Amino acid sequence: MSDQIIKKEIEILSKKELDRTIKRLASQILEKVLDVNSLLLIGIPTRGVYLSKLLAFYLEELSGQIVENGCLDPTFHRDDLSRVGTRIAQATDLPSNVDDREVVLVDDVIYTGRTIKAALEALNSWGRAKRVMLVAMVDRGHREVPIQPDFCGRVVPTSKDESIDLRLREVDGEEGIFLCKKLP
Length: 184
Prior knowledge:
Blueprint: E1 7-13, H1 15-32, E2 39-43, H2 47-63, E3 68-71, H3 81-84, E4 102-110, H4 114-124, E5 131-139, E6 151-155, E7 162-167, H5 169-172, E8 176-182
Helix pairs in contact: 1-2
């Protein structure tokens, strides 16, 4: 007997649709930010870091200005480590001070909201941002804390036994967003 978990996958966004969605999110961010020079994108590991770099690329393309981006690992600020387990924390790497900056936290999927809650707590230890906004590529619902993304690629209502996999070439070797369900 195999211990392998069988998953059924449904493609929600193809590589092309994912790229178009990231470009749309970059445009929406530019519409909301008054000064691109004050913008700081901060990715949440793992895929949020790569999404942050893609957003920075498109923001630079649209605005003609360099957009700083970095990484913030909220692992040690989580209140649910016993439930989600620990992993090796990624080093926080912020290119500059967050004080008086318009910070955009970037994450792949928002679910309970606890990762973002922890990221906000971690961010406070690095300074006081002028404003903090949130980009989530997919919002799958089931929030446990009152946190909503300012910018969202796609809302995909899920059951608790389903998951969303965002796959990026740099991490996974392929691109797209998939709804996954474990089969009995």
